[in-house]
Fold this protein.
Amino acid sequence: MTKQLFFLLLLFISNSSFSQLSNLVKSDSITYPVHQNNIGKITFMGNTIPIEKFKESDFLTSFELKKKADLNIRVFMGNSLTNYLHTLSPESPADELVKNGNYQFTFLVDNIKIYEENLNAGAGSAESKNQRTVFRVPLISSSNEDSWGIFLWNRFLMNGGQDALSSGEHALRIEIRPYLKLTEVVVGKLLAEGQIKVVVPEVKIDEKLVRIQAIKPLKDWSISTDHIDTAKIEALNKKIGTQSYKDITSIVVIKDGKLLLEEYFNGAKRNALHDMRSVGKTFASTLMGIAIRDGYIQSETKQLNAFYDLKKYQNYSSAKDSISLKDLLTMSSVLTGLDTDPQSPGTEENMYPTANWVDFTLNLPVDETKLAAKRWEYFTAGVVVLGDVVHQSVPNGLEQYSAKNLFQPLGITNYKWQLTPQKVANTAGGIQLRSLDFAKYGQLYQNQGSWNGQQILPKEWVEKSLSHQTTISKNEYYGYLFWNKTYQVNGKDYEVYYCSGNGGNKIMVFKDQPWVIVITATAYNKPYGHSQVDAIIQNYLIPAIVK
């Protein structure tokens, strides 16, 4: 074959592929000159400008990062996303490409890659993926626009962007590629990129707010004199004070059973009661363990049909009879309920408006896909049932039982239960305590169930609770209403069991270290709530207290 014939053949194959690509789905035509002249570019703008009025003179080249601001990107492509995904899997039909693929976003600051994310395949409609060749994404919105772009930007900030965008001027570059996940994740060529200068003003705060807060004398805790890295804590305090870490209200660190650090922020004080939301779920496990110790409940292996006539409820199935208390403690029952899926009938958002939360839960159908192999799924309604089982099994109900058998032995007198519609203490996440008292609760588990020489909770129950009962994902597990994961700091693993609540609220009980950490926050339903607390623990608190 001559060289000329070889190149003609290559040209034919290339043209055939392009024709197949263009005809997979019909993309929007490129009608505006600004689009034609900027294919493959990501452009930036402040306020939203309609595409028909958008001019190159409107492109932002510099942006000041401040509280009340708007930053949008407009992406110009030569074809639709689905057609680009087609190049990654030419044999796949369009609906499969849309279902399993999306954009990969890469954020670089000063030419250093900070964050990369394969956008959830469910973000964006099938129509937009099939047709659109130009689209707008809000990254920062003064009006709190509801968009996946806002959440993406916040994840970038909480995964290194906040630190990279320190005060001064920075070059922010964004790159977009197609990705497809079939048997494995495949990433395509660069579709579009753009760069902007970001000016970050210096936020000045009173130096008094940066210093470590002195611990005032108190009777319930001995004050530790152990070493703590002052510079690390002051650097953390500065980030909280400048709102790099937002909505943090308190941090308490216990080491060797003594109070090492006690700090309050954003108007919170020592005696404030904190709404730690789903942290309160774990109290259902604690009270279950105490009730089993006292003989009011035989075992966590008891099934729901020992407490309820399940045939009286809707969607009865014999599979419901086999649901055990342990299934609910480990969030692995066969009931159809997944809080993170808005389409699931058993979400907590569907439960709260109902007149009876227990009836709501027991009326749920069985998820047939869980019958062959149970799996972990976050299920608030199941914890409500656990609370109700304890409530009906112990004398005088859950609220009085918890006062006598948990709070009084721990010396906790200032607390508040929220109640269900049936006036039962709400184990979905309705207990409010002081930060120092949440620390007592964590220390109870660190002490293997004892407090001041009294065995409040059976040691065997603590061991079961702080164990890998079910797998959530790789390197993440679940015990009896306790989460589990491992932080890595300076090449060393720090395994922790923890209670977790909306907004970034945590009680952390370290497995191989004599530490308990409590962080309270009010970042409810904010995308940065949990990730910023992980950063605080991994980058500041662990390094500050480790020897």
